[in-house]
Design brief:
heterotetramer, A mainly alpha (344), B mainly alpha (496), C mainly alpha (500), D mainly alpha (131), A: 344 residues, mainly alpha, 2 domains, 14 helices, B: 496 residues, three-stranded mixed beta sheet, 75% helix
Chain lengths: 344, 496, 500, 131
């Protein structure tokens, strides 16, 4: 209890600091801490799947993307005395207080925190907990719901990621004109991406060897771990999303160590483009095959793969890998598109 | 009453609609284009007249075209009342079609194809109003009439025309959307139907207060009838070419307005309801005020078309005044006046246009001695003016006579006074023109010989002679017209 | 086999669009025209399927499609009642017809290298919206709403001018706030009921109407959705987003994005919480009434003040949204029918108008209304379509715009709120004001200086753009003249929603 | 009162975090700050869902085969939040992509400055058109 409250307090402090820091890079780092603490809290609250995802996505990928963006824009937050003023902070405060007050009013009638008899636990959840394993052959109930009961949600989720990836490609992958801009916010300008330094430097920079060696050594293990997380999604916390992100991380690490060009040589742009949609298409195909065998979309049990148990196991694995492929592809794409150096 | 189902009214409406396309395709060859107009006008007249015997036999023609929404039909019904308006409009279109040729060609106007197209369309709309069997159908054609006359008003496309046309639109569309549509919705809500039924549909459906409000909304919503203070658009619309002013703003559009007012008074509210609530009397006073005020304003106008326009405002209110007296004679007079005023006023407008086409004169003060240059034209003008003043031997006398009778019947002698005063005012603004034209010398330097009957000018003069003859003829055929009027009166006042 | 597929049409109608979207980057990599081909075929099939669904729903009643054959509320289902079938058909139709139009327009407005991904995102946008309409699960609704939203932000951001980026960002921030509010609402509802299925919620909620959790959930749903549909005063994102987006994006956004938002609002208010809730517990209808009225007037007045045609149409959208919410606030069948009819009207009419704008931009590149002088002669058919669209917006009888307004006015009378009528009509009048100025410029105004005329080189829009525009214009008239069919569906939908 | 706070402290902290994130989204001028606010806001909502799913004395919802009588936590909100986290990163990624483009075009990531530039441009355009 005390531990919980202390963690929560820490999270609140992190949030306040993150939005109040003038140095954006520091703010982003604090945000990362915030996300990691959040993951810890969730782990404590018996939500290991979510904690793992938050650690991988919220603290990992998000931070990387933020830093990529800062390196291409600027580090500082500056005040401008401009004629246009859209929104005064005081009005913002007023709205936020009203917003908080409303939410707080709602808490009055809420069941107490942790109450096992709350409606949330007694209606739908009961069947998931009691029958989930029998009906889906997946001991991890989160995966059971994710892939089976609410398979369409998960498909939608894959599509959301795909949409974001395509959106970023649409925005950033052009050869149209770009302006060279100067920074004047008091911080040292960062002329090229942090992640891009490797192929820019010709002489050996201090510590570079270490980076490269560490990367070389760890990348295979990261990848194997990613695949493991995907494949074991149905028995232990983890699954396509988390595993996909971990796979993507290995590529991101490679890029950081060896530079964008080297990375692109190994994994060409068209390959990630194909990866992006492959996962989604496999998932969709899985659903459509069920229709062909006379069932509903995503009704795995109609597939002629032996007993229901095995059919479900195989289908869940396929679905997890499909998710993993798209997530990995998109995360790599997001990273590369945001972190690549501006053409001069 | 026997009902005959027939598509004739639809053909009558559609003929000019189809003519629009023919006119558009014949844009390159003016002669073909104008032939289409004339042919369409003749066919339309033929169809309308072919329905006359049926109506005179006491039957009605009905046709339900389609149901747009539950309760809202596009339906047509031809009865004696519709025929008043339909005959007037379709007859005068033929004459105007010839007149247009003369006027537009002698002035070498631009955009003539558009002009003829919109003209044909506005005739469709006018007949649509005449034949509509319910408020919804009527509203559709009312709006259509506004929209298709808009290009005619803005025709010259000068800054002034654009400004005035926009005001024209705002007045007509604005009042119809804000007031008339509200009234229609309310009628539908309370009465459950929008059908025109002799004797009215609103009686007993809502409280008196609501009915009064609906009444006011209707009257305010039909700006085309030109009742003050919703008359402003009418003089402004005179920026249009004269044929437009003649047929539309003296006949089709404004007559559509008063036609609708009468229709709503008699077929939506019903004579009894109006009498019970005293609404007829109230409207009569508003109309009287309009008559007098418009005549006084007309006196001050030097622009001939402007004077005619204000005269129109006044004359329209005669129709409204007569019907709001709610007695058989007065209602008959009001129906009759639709025809009388149409033929008289179109003659006057034709003259104004003919003078402008031949001499480019617009103002009354420039008309000294014009009778020597254009004697035929000015004789026709005199005929029209005398008719509107109400001199015997001319059609206008008949209506004023019946109107006065009606006022006495209703026991409101004050309206007899209004009629007399306004007749004097009419005389005061028409006769000086006649006097100046015939008895004042021409200004120096002007040649007394203008070729009145040569070239395209002839096309402008002959039609106005024809309408002048009509004005005289109406006086003599009045008894037959009255037969038709009696049919209407009988249906709305239950045989009295 | 065929029977199988037909049985699965309620699911496939959305999925086929998403499948196409996923295929497009593979197939259209080198040749955008292939991407376009796939998109058009998928959108067309989806439209046909939605017509089939509409037909089935109207003849045999509600369709419930269980994904994975998991029975609701445990699994996710698609539910088609008259309203969702109706809106689905509308969305898929507009999605298809805009796609036909898009080919030429995009060639003129988007970098060639971007076109393939533009189509992919376009399909995701449409698919997302269709998913929102189809789904019977409230969290699934959120997911699809976000698919559409994210695709929408990207589609806006690729506009020709740099303002598009900021417009997109502002929209993203506000849209995310809206989505977060909806997510909070879902969380509160789940906490109070333990379920996510809409039908299940509708059963459980009446027992706990008095709970503050439910109340707050409702508040957050309505505020979030009000942002999504740009209800005054939460409309700030809309004008810039519509103005600076590429024409194709403006068309779909204006035509169906806010309409789907309105659909969700209706669904949440009437199906999830139920009309009883609004009438007895929250009395939110008064608030909606006031906001709608203000939106109708302010939107139109601001539209009059604009000189950029896209901005003008955008502000008019804000006014039109007011009509839709007005019908919702009236809480009677007639009013709600009017609201649904206005959704139809606004979708078709706005799509038509924005298509005309796209055609003008394609031929001349101008959007400033003073530059439009002489267009009536140069692009007669396009401008005729514009005129019809404008008449429908004003609400002339025999156009579909009249139908909605008729029902709204009748509904106000039925609700005893006669004072709403003048507002509806004055707002129409203001629409006359801003549209007529435009029509005057197009048809009647004389150029002051012939050399400054920006429309000299203009000519009729290419057929690929003209045909969709004219089809929509014709629909404005056909659906307004033979209004019986759409009205019967809308009325049925309204009755179902109000539980008659 | 104390009891109320003790019973619901977790929800109250969620609300506080939401307020902080929301405030940053609407009141901060810096675009990156807005996106940071967006992240905080969303994560706070996730925390709320997870709090809803929490059950006193339960264990993570992974079935232990062969063991009876284990109380498992409620897995449904976890699934929802998995989805929502992915939606969150998608939104963040797109927002960051937009920020990069905005910086390339405007040279600033301060909202007010950008809006001012827009306005200036608008005025210049009008002047050029002579209106």
């Amino acid at each position: 209890m005390i531990m919980d409250i202390a963690l929560l307090l820490l999270v609140v402090i992190c949030a306040i600091v993150a939005i109040q820091m003038k140095d954006l890079l520091s703010a982003v780092i604090v945000l990362t801490v915030y996300s990691l603490l959040m993951a810890v809290i969730w782990f404590v609250m018996d939500a290991p799947d979510v904690a793992l995802t938050e650690a991988a996505i919220g603290a990992g990928i998000t931070t990387i993307l933020f830093i990529a963006v800062l390196s291409r824009t600027r580090r500082g937050e500056t005040e401008h005395n401009t004629k246009v003023r859209r929104f005064s902070p005081r009005a913002g405060l007023l709205i936020v207080v009203a917003f908080g007050a409303m939410l707080a009013v709602g808490t009055v009638d809420m069941p107490d925190f942790g109450d096992p008899h709350a409606p949330a636990h007694t209606h739908l959840a009961e069947r998931f907990v009691e029958m989930g394993y029998q009906e889906t052959a997946s001991p991890n109930l989160v995966t059971a719901i994710l892939i089976c009961y609410r398979g369409v949600d998960t498909l939608g989720e894959v599509i959301v990621v795909l949409t974001a990836g395509m959106g970023v490609i649409l925005l950033l992958r052009t050869t149209s004109r770009r302006k060279q801009l100067t920074n004047n916010d008091g911080y040292k300008p960062i002329m090229c991406s942090y992640y891009d330094r490797a192929d820019k430097t010709t002489k050996v920079v201090k510590g570079e060897i270490i980076r490269k060696v560490v990367a070389r050594l760890s990348i295979p293990f990261i990848q194997i771990f990613g695949l493991f997380v995907i494949a074991h999604g149905k028995v232990s916390p983890g699954g396509g999303f988390q595993g996909g992100v971990i796979l993507a991380t290995s590529i991101i690490l490679f890029t950081m160590a060896f530079g964008m060009e080297a990375s692109r040589k190994r994994l060409a742009q068209w390959k990630t483009d194909v990866l992006n949609v492959t996962g989604a298409l496999v998932f969709l195909a899985l659903g459509l095959v069920c229709i062909l065998f006379g069932g509903k979309f995503l009704e795995y049990t109609v597939l002629p793969l032996g007993c229901d148990m095995w059919t479900n196991k195989i289908a869940i694995t396929v679905a997890e890998f499909a998710i993993g492929i798209t997530v990995a592809g998109i995360m790599i794409t997001l990273f590369i598109e945001t972190a690549k150096r501006d053409d001069k | 009453m026997e009902i005959i189902e027939s598509t004739k009214p639809i053909y009558a409406i559609l003929i000019s609609f189809f003519a629009t396309f023919l006119i558009a395709f014949a844009a390159r060859s003016p002669n073909l284009r104008e032939s289409w107009t004339v042919i369409a006008a003749l066919i339309k007249f033929g169809i309308v007249m072919s329905m006359l015997p049926i109506i005179l036999a006491g039957k009605t023609i009905e046709y339900n075209l389609l149901t747009v929404m539950p309760g809202l039909d596009i339906a047509f019904r031809v009865d004696a009342f519709s025929m008043f308006f339909a005959i007037t409009a379709s007859t005068l279109w033929i004459v105007t079609a010839f007149y247009c040729i003369g006027y537009m060609r002698s002035l070498k106007e631009k955009h003539q194809t558009r002009f003829y197209m919109c003209f044909a369309l506005s005739l469709s709309a006018a007949l649509g109003i005449a034949f509509s069997a319910n408020l919804f159908t009527m509203f559709i054609f009312y709006e259509m009439l506004t929209l298709v006359t808009y290009p005619l008003v803005i025709h010259s496309q000068t800054a002034e025309a654009v400004k005035k046309a926009r005001r024209y639109l705002v007045y007509l569309l604005g009042t119809s959307i804000v007031f008339q549509l509200t009234a229609i919705v309310a009628t539908f809500y309370f009465a459950g139907t929008l059908e025109f039924i002799p004797g009215g549909i609103l009686a007993g459906t809502a409280s008196d207060m609501v009915i009064v409000v609906i009444f006011i909304l209707f009257i305010a919503g039909i700006a085309k009838a030109g009742i003050m203070p919703f008359h402003v658009w009418l003089p402004e619309a005179m920026v249009a070419p004269t044929p437009v002013s003649a047929l539309l703003h003296a006949v089709a559009v404004v007559k559509a307005g008063v036609f609708i007012v009468i229709k709503i008074l008699l077929y939506v509210f019903g004579v009894d309801l109006l009498a019970e609530l005293g609404l007829g009397l109230a409207l009569a006073f508003v109309a009287s005020f309009t008559i007098i005020a418009a005549s006084v304003i007309a006196l001050q106008k030097d622009n001939l078309k402007a004077r005619l326009a204000y005269s129109t405002v006044g004359q329209l209110s005669y129709v409204v005044l007569a019907v709001s007296l709610l007695t058989p004679a007065a209602i008959a007079a009001s129906l009759m006046h639709i025809m009388v005023h149409a033929s008289s006023k179109i003659t006057l407008f034709f003259t104004a246009g003919a003078i402008y086409a031949a001499t480019k004169k617009k103002k009354i003060s420039e008309l000294d001695g014009i009778g020597k240059q254009m004697p035929l034209t000015m004789i026709a003008f005199t005929v029209g003016a005398l008719s509107l003043i109400g001199v015997p031997l001319f059609a206008g006398f008949i209506t004023k006579w019946y109107m006065a009778t009606g006022a006495i019947e209703a026991g409101h002698l004050i309206f007899v006074g209004v009629i007399i005063i306004s007749s004097m005012l009419n005389a005061a603004y028409f006769l000086p023109i006649v006097r100046a034209a015939f008895f004042k010398p021409l200004p120096e330097g002007e040649h007394p010989k203008v070729k009145e009957l040569s070239g395209y000018t002839a096309f402008t003069v002959v039609p106005l002679l024809i309408t002048a003859v009509m004005v005289v003829a109406l006086f003599f055929v009045a008894p037959w017209v009255m037969v038709l009027a009696q049919l209407v009166v009988a249906s709305v006042i239950g045989g009295s | 086999m065929i029977a199988n597929i037909i049985e699965n049409i309620p699911g496939l109608v959305v999925l086929i669009v998403i499948i196409a979207a996923s295929l497009i980057p593979l197939v259209g990599k080198s040749r955008p025209v292939l991407a376009w081909g796939i998109a058009v075929i998928a959108a067309f099939l989806s439209f046909i399927m939605s017509l089939y669904i509409l037909n089935v729903v109207m003849t045999t009643g509600k369709i419930r499609y269980w994904f994975g054959n998991w029975e609701p509320p445990w699994g996710i289902e698609y539910v088609f009642d008259p309203l969702s079938a109706f809106v689905l058909t509308l969305v898929s139709f507009v999605g298809f017809i805009v796609l036909v139009y898009a080919k030429k327009s995009l060639e003129a407005e988007i970098d060639p290298e971007r076109i393939t991904y533009f189509y992919a995102l376009y399909m995701l946008f449409i698919g997302g919206l269709m998913g929102v309409v189809a789904t019977g699960d409230i969290f699934n609704l959120y997911v699809f709403l976000e698919i559409a939203a994210i695709a929408g932000y990207a589609l806006i951001a690729v506009g020709r001018r740099r303002e598009a980026l900021m417009a997109s960002f502002t929209y993203l921030i506000l849209g995310t706030i809206a989505a977060a509010f909806i997510l909070i609402g879902i969380g509160y509802l789940y906490m109070a009921t333990g379920t996510l299925n809409i039908i299940d919620l509708a059963v459980i909620l009446p027992e706990i109407y008095q709970s503050k959790v439910v109340l707050i959930a409702f508040a957050f749903f309505t505020v979030g959705l009000s942002i999504k549909i740009a209800l005054f005063p939460l409309h700030n994102w809309l004008p810039n987003a519509y103005t600076y987006a590429p024409s194709v994006t403006s068309i779909v956004m204006a035509a169906i994005a806010t309409k789907v938002g309105a659909y969700v609002l209706i669904r949440v208010m009437f199906t999830v919480f139920g009309p009883e809730f609004e009438l007895t517990v929250v009395h939110v209808t008064e608030v909606f009434l006031v906001l709608s009225v203000v939106a109708m007037i302010i939107g139109s007045v601001l539209a009059i003040a604009q000189t950029d045609i896209k901005k003008m149409l955008a502000y008019s959208s804000i006014a039109q949204v007011g009509y839709i919410t007005l019908g919702i606030a009236l809480m009677n069948v007639t009013g709600l029918t009017g609201s649904i009819m206005h959704i139809l009207n606004h979708a078709i009419m706005k799509a038509c108008l924005f298509m005309v704008v796209g055609a003008i931009v394609y031929r001349t590149g101008i959007t400033h209304i003073h530059d439009f002088v002489g267009l009536g002669k140069k692009m007669p058919y396009t401008m005729a379509a514009f005129t019809i669209g404008a008449l429908s917006m004003i609400g002339m009888p025999l156009t579909v715009g009249f139908v909605g307004k008729w029902y709204l006015t009748l509904g106000s009378l039925e609700a005893g709120m006669w004072y709403i009528i003048p507002v509806i009509l004055v707002s129409s009048l203001l629409a006359v004001g801003y549209l007529w100025r435009l029509l005057d410029n197009i048809y009647f105004k004389q150029p002051e200086n012939a050399s400054e005329l920006k429309t000299v080189k203009a000519k009729e829009a290419p057929l690929a753009m003209l045909i969709p525009t004219c089809v929509l214009a014709l629909l404005c008239i056909v659906l307004g003249t033979f209004a019986y069919l759409p009205i019967s569906i809308a009325e049925e939908a309204a009755k179902v929603l109000l539980r008659y | 009162m104390m009891e109320f706070i003790l019973g619901k402290y977790n929800y109250l902290v969620c609300i506080l975090l939401m307020m902080i994130g929301f405030y940053a989204m609407i009141a901060k001028e810096n675009l990156v700050k807005k996106v940071i606010g967006l992240n905080i806001f969303q994560t706070a909502i996730f925390l709320f869902y997870i709090s809803v799913s929490y059950m006193e004395g339960a264990t993570a919802p992974v079935v232990w085969q062969g063991q009876e009588g284990v109380l498992y936590g409620n897995p449904l909100p976890h699934v929802l939040i998995l989805t929502a986290i992915v939606v969150g990163i998608s939104m963040t990624a797109l927002a960051l992509g937009l920020i990069i483009k905005i910086y390339q075009e405007y040279g600033s990531i301060e909202e007010n400055r950008i809006l001012e530039l827009n306005q200036l441009e608008e005025e210049q355009n009008l002047k050029r058109a002579g209106r």
